Amino acid sequence: MDSSNPSTRQTRAGTRSSLACLPCRSKHLKCDGKRPQCGRCIEFEKQCDFAPSRRGGLDRAALAERRKRLAAEVHESDSNGSSTPHLEQISQHQSEDVSIPIQGWELFDDFNLLDGATLGDDSSQPISRSSPQSHAGDLETDPLIKSYYESFHNLHPLLLPRAAFLRLVKDPPSTFNFSPLTAVMRLIGNIYARQEWSILLKDQTEEGLLQLSPDSPVLVQCRLLYSIALFWNNFKDEAKHQMDCATEVAERLGMHKSEFSRQYNAGEPVLEESWRRTWWMLYIIDAYYAGTLGTMNFRVGNIEATVELPCEEREYELEVIPQPQTLEDFDSREFAPSNVTFSSFAYLISAVRCAALAISTVPKVASKEDSAQVIHSADSIIDAWSLLLPKERRNVMSKTGQIDELMFQAHLPIGVASIGLHSPLSDLRFNPVEDMSSCAREPPVDNPSSDLVNVHTVRVLRAVESQIHLLALPSRPFHHTPRSRPAWSARGPLRCFQLVTSYCKASS
C-alpha cells in the first residue's frame, strides 16, 4: 500500500481511536473506541467501560476569571443579605489567596485519579478564611472536610473516622486540641475538590501547627498529613522537613511503644486505634520517601516498634475495636489457627517491611557478583510475602467491584522492589524516559553471567505485568493514593508496555 497517498492517510486518521476502553487496555488489545460499547466487548459480551478524560483543565487566565466571577457572586449575595457565614469574601482577599493549579495531573487523566472528589456545586464555593478553630457544626457541612473523607481517608486511614472525629471535636478530651487538624484536612480536601494548591489553606495549616503543643500527638498527625500534601505537590524538601519533625515528636513521645496508645486514649478505644495507625502510617510514608528520593535513609524503619497492628477498616469505622494483634503474632501467622486473620493495613505494613528488607540485602549499585544474592536472598523475602497471603487477600478487587485500597498499596512496594532489584541485572536496557522518575536507578556497568540474565529478566516482566494489572482495574471512581504515582512512573505503564513488547520482539 502506498503510504504517500493522501486519501490513504486520511482513511487511517479517520479510523484511529485515541482512547481504548478499560478491558481492551488491560489486555493491550486494539479497540475501536465506539461508545457506549466497543466492537470487541460486544463480540465477547464484556462490560465496556471508558475512563473519562480530565484533560483540558483551566489555565491561569481562566482560573482568574473564575475567581472574579465567584467574588462577584459573593458580593451580590452579601448585598441581598443572604451570605453564608463560614465562606470568605474572596473579593476582599484575592491578593492573599493564590491558588496554583496542580501540575502533572494530565499524566494520569485517563485513569481518573481524582474522580472520588465529586462535591457537586460545593466544589466551586470560595474557601473559608475562618481560623483552624472550627466548630463541629461547620465541619459537618464543610465541603472540603467531606472531600477529605470521601477521597483521601480510605487511602490513608490514620485519622479518626468521620463520626468519631466530629464527636470529639464537638466535645474534645481536655488533653487534646483537634481543631488545628481541620486545617490540613481542608488543604488536602481542596486538592481533590479543585485540583489547586491553595496558599491560603497552606497558611492556615501552618498557623494550626503553631497552636499545638510541641508534645501533642495531634502534632504528629498534622505534620504527617501536611508532609504528604507537600510531597504530592512536588515541595519535596519541605515535605521531608515536616516528616522529620513528625518523626522527632513521635519518637520523643514514645508513639512506637505499645503503652503509648493506651496512655493517650482518653477513654476512647477508637482514639487508641488512631494513635497506632498514626505510627504505622508514619513508617509507611517514611519508607516511601526513602525509596522515591533514593536516599535510603529510612529513619522510622530503624526504630524498634512494639506498637500493635491496626484492626480491620470496618471495625475502625464502626468504632468496634478488637484486642489488637502484635508484630510477633503476624510474623508467626503460618502457625496460627485458621480462624486468626489480620487486617489489610497489617499486610500493607508487612509489604513495606519485606520490600525494605529485600532491598537492604544488596548494594545500592548492583554488580555481577550480586546477581545470585538478589535471586537467593531478596527473592525469598518477596516471595514469602506473596506465598503467605491468605486467599481472601489475594484479590484486590471484590466481586462487587470494590477495591481494597490498602491491599492495592501493599502490592505496589512488592512489585517495585522486585523491578528495582532485578531490572539493572536483566536483559532490559535502561530507557531515557526512566530519568523522569526519581525512583529509577542507573544500570550497572557490567551485567551478570548469561545464565542468570534470563532469570532477572523474567522476574522484571512478571512484576511489570502485576503492576499493569493493578493499574488497569476497572474501578469507578478510579483514584488511588498519590504515593502510587511515582511507583508507576518508576517503570510506568507506558514504559512497562515498552519493556514487555520489546522483549517479546527480541525473543521471537
UniProtKB/TrEMBL annotation:
Pfam families: Fungal_trans (PF04082), Zn_clus (PF00172). GO terms for molecular function: DNA binding; DNA-binding transcription factor activity, RNA polymerase II-specific; zinc ion binding. The keyword Metal-binding applies. PROSITE patterns: ZN2_CY6_FUNGAL_1, ZN2_CY6_FUNGAL_2. Residues 20-50 form the Zn(2)-C6 fungal-type domain. Residues 72-95 are annotated as: Disordered. One of its GO terms (biological process) is DNA-templated transcription. Keywords: Metal-binding, Nucleus. The keyword Ribosomal protein does not apply. This is C6 transcription factor.
